[in-house]
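Subject: Predicted fold for Transporter substrate-binding domain-containing protein, 270 residues

User T.R. writes:
Posting the sequence so we have a shared reference for the thread.
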Amino acid sequence: MGNWKTLLFLLMAAVLVLAACSEDKGEASDNEYGLTEKGKFTYAASGVYKPFSFEENGELTGFDIEIGTEIAKRMGLEANPVTNPFETILQGLVANKYDAIIGSMAYTKKRAEQAAFTQPYYYSGGMIWIAKDNDEIKTPEDLKGKKIGVVSQSTYEEPAKTLSDDIQYYASDVVALKDLTIEGRLDAVITADIVGFEAIENGFAIKEVGNPLWVEQPSIAVKKDNEKLRDAIDQALQEMIDDGTYEEISQKWFKRNLLDIDLEDAELLE
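User M.O. replies:
I've generated the structure tokens; pasting them so everyone works from the same file.
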């Protein structure tokens, strides 16, 4: 009888040890990516950049949000999208408020000093937009002395400053483009070609000036020292591209593949 008790005790001890090891392994797995919240992939977008990220019926939706949701699923994590104003979104990442930025942030060398970036998850062109009835502005040079609207801390801010000294800052491209249609508010807006064409489809009386000034490489940003998370996101993104899931999401929101672009003669923004 004593032997049975001893054996039972040893079995119970073994179970407890295995459970502890399993728990430790789970915690290590969760902490492998340095997540801000256990079991969740928390990623930020502005929430005011339709059709990339916006609120509908009280919930975040859009292209960026769906890309993040699919990446989280492939990493075995719960998707947890949050919003942060674009002008401080990079600072929020550095401060560990979230794990990643999936908010249409283009890669630049300057931003890479503060964050690690994945491969591009789409391409877009920086384009000048004016009111549909504006016949005065036909080239970038015509913007000298004109009031240009841009989103603060965006990649459009510095180019705008080279074209005019009169810059109006916004938190949302959509609001800037809306002001463009109101007489006396703005002369031009510099933003992504995708956003402008989407605005036209939604009834905005605007038009583009010439061709895109450059091609941007919106990428997913994580903390600079978190290469494990960056690599895991890259792997999930590549899997999405390879199996057609990316194509489905892109076609849903834009009726085209945002990665399908000829970069041979393009000037890439860096």
